Amino acid sequence: MYLPFFATERMRLTSTDLPPEAPLALTTRIGAQRLVAAVDAKAFAHGLKPGMAATQAQLLLPGLILRDHAPRADAHGLAKLAAWCLARYSPVVAPAPPDGLLLDVTGCTHLFAARTEGQSRNPDEGEENLLADLASCLARRGLTARLALAGSVGAAHALARFAAPDCSRIAETESLKRALAPLPVEALRLPPETPQALRRLGFERIGDLIGAKRAPITRRFGHDVFLRLDQALGLSREPLVPLIPPELVSAKLSFVEPVITAEGLAQAVERLCSDLAAALEARQHGARRLDFHVTRLDRSTSIVSVRMAKPNRAPEHMARLICEKLAGLDCGLGVEKVLLAAPLTRPLLPEQIASELYGRPQEPDLSTLVDRLANRLGAGRIYRTAPVESDWPERSVRRVAALAPKPRTETPRPENWLRDWPRPARLLPDPMPVEVIALLPDYPPALFIWQGRRHRICRADGPERIFGEWWRAPGEIALARDYFQVEDEAGQRFWLFREEVGGRPQRWYLHGFFA
Amino acid sequence: MIPISMVGAQHDKESGAGWRATVLKELRREVGALEAGARPDAPALAFEAEAIDSHLPEGGLRLGALHEIWGGRAVPIDRQEPERTKKTGTTRTSGMSGFENPGGNGGAEDIAAATLFLAGLLARLSGPVLWCLKARDLFTPSLAAAGLDPDRVIYAETWHERDVLAAMEEGLQHPGLAAVVGEVARLGLTASRRLQLAAESEGVTAFTLLRPHRQTGAEPTAAATRWRIRSAPSLPPMPSSSAANPVAGIGRGRWRVDLMRCRGADPASFITEACDGTGRLGVSALLRDGADAPHLDRSAA
């Protein structure tokens, strides 16, 4: 995440007396000279750049407002933004001062994928949604941001800052070379004088460096150039140092001897959980998410995240959720340090126990069960269903969160679900075409053949006509279905329909089973 | 247990089959309670269908236990394997434990009636229900038609078949639930024992809907009961005066409910009407076949 105008926009957000239409620049004093340190978007459009003399800037753009630059406040603001990202997007957020944030969203993007039933989730969709969500949240706060998502830290840094505005900002690890090649060498996070010297030698773009002989360049510029290049291409590792904001509720433990067994880790988790529970209780908060950071001997860090459906601070519950997830963790040479943090907490106050005196029986608390199952099966696989106003059977049900509040309606709930016509117990995900013999065009079928079996129909109800919902899918405007409930000789009941396109009957399908 | 002397005294006063039936029923109840272990007086959920309830030792489905429900392909009544129904009265352990499930392979078409049968049972329990499944063919609005409020059901969708049993066990440890349902392809002896123990310890009732991948026989399990629900042809239609519609309309469906195995009761078959809107099986047309139960024939329609 690159925030090109962070300093000025932060200044605008914190001070109230700045006219929004006037351009703004922040100045800093070096000796006797006043230099521009940061500019906002309007000033930038007029050609103002950091490093200019303040007087020159005022000359170029009359009406420019000058303020003192406050780098420490900026760093603090960036850390606050990072803490917000930590709660919302990813357990690993590292500020990249002065104007960037790095988020490791590995394994977090699926949470942003659209939740539609019956569709397989496209992982890329999650990434795009995450970027869109981040961009809109930042824009609402008045921050201009340029976002890029890539397989390595260096590449994300380069793409966010130097990629052309119209090209895709998402790069897979395989296509990093292609994405980075057209970018200038400045994108490589090198000391400021190195890119200039490289340009003088004819290396203008990263693509020029990729194929170049390494030895002469290394000899002249040191190892940095190719280290940064390899990091950007994802060839050498570059761990992010995750930010732990001081106000974050957390507990940590360092081991004298490295821990390599699962039992040892489990014990550590139990201790951390009871510490964390005490800290949460002091604040009257419960955790919605827990991040368990495991630092190995070689300084590499793994993070195990668990989510909870309701704020919770019961240490046994938290420890159990984390321990279940530790099974796949690679301890490497041994674990040196562990840290348990609760980046997302919500107030959790003592609750009134509903008594039968009030006439309302207490609803059993299922949150621990839901947490455990979600931890094991994945979020989104524990759900309830809710009715949708739609005649189209495939669309008449949607999934809602398992503990979502039940809608309060006037009618008792089962009636809310019932329709005039019965619905089958089992619905085929895709209707299956069947061969049908009907006596007259509008009569229910007399016989149908499905999976090579003949079913002679003894009784039938129907048709129930359902029209295509053109406001949901444009192709459905001419579509209609005539549903029949039929019973065969053996008593088995099926749900058949005849599809109509533009008023002309087409095919027969089997869509479900009543009994 | 009825003391022997008392039995003798009763023998003097009463006579014939009525007395025998009473003593046998009492003995069966006692033995069943011994077998069940810790809970001799476990609460039971009555079917509220006299013929079924009076056949079961606890007067209904034992709560806090594991029950197996099988589906199966509908078979016309006159062709339903007669040797099975004649078996009522043979020893109860050998009964139908190793039955072949004719035609049923656990597809959506075979399990639909069993689903509604189960929904009707759950409708008369109170509290949330955990439904563990892998297939995505359950159509939840239909549960409302059997009286089960779909809002009471929390679904756990698993990636693999084997996770269904694990999710069920997790759910059975939660006393806030009324019941846990699992749709499984097979239920082995070990898995069923684990589920049964978990169900007993917290008093949560477990149901497995069996959806075998192939036509297989049932394995011996630790389940308290084993049922098989198949659809049966409706009663002959009322003579209709309207000539406009040549096909008779659909009324309330009928099921063939087979009690395949039950501790303390013989296997039996019933013909019932499908669940009504409150989850009760129809009793008006309740039939039981098997020649050794003449007193039940009175309830036949």
UniProtKB/TrEMBL annotation, chain A:
Alphabetical UniProt keywords: DNA damage
Domain UmuC residue range list: 16-156
GO molecular function: damaged DNA binding
Catalytic activity: DNA(n) + a 2'-deoxyribonucleoside 5'-triphosphate = DNA(n+1) + diphosphate
Quaternary assembly: Monomer.
InterPro entries the record matches: DNA/RNA_pol_sf, DNA_pol_Y-fam_little_finger, SulA_CellDiv_inhibitor, UmuC
EC number: 2.7.7.7
Domain of life: Bacteria
Native organism: Afifella marina DSM 2698
Top EC category: transferase
Protein name: DNA-directed DNA polymerase
Gene Ontology BP term (one): DNA repair
PANTHER family assigned to the protein according to its UniProt record, in alphabetical order: BLR3025 PROTEIN, BLR3025 PROTEIN-RELATED
Cofactor: Mg(2+)
From TrEMBL, chain B:
InterPro entries: ImuA, P-loop_NTPase
Bias type Low complexity, positions: 88-97
Residue ranges of the region described as Disordered: 79-102
SUPFAM superfamilies in alphabetical order: P-loop containing nucleoside triphosphate hydrolases
Name of protein: Protein ImuA
Organism expressing this protein natively: Afifella marina DSM 2698
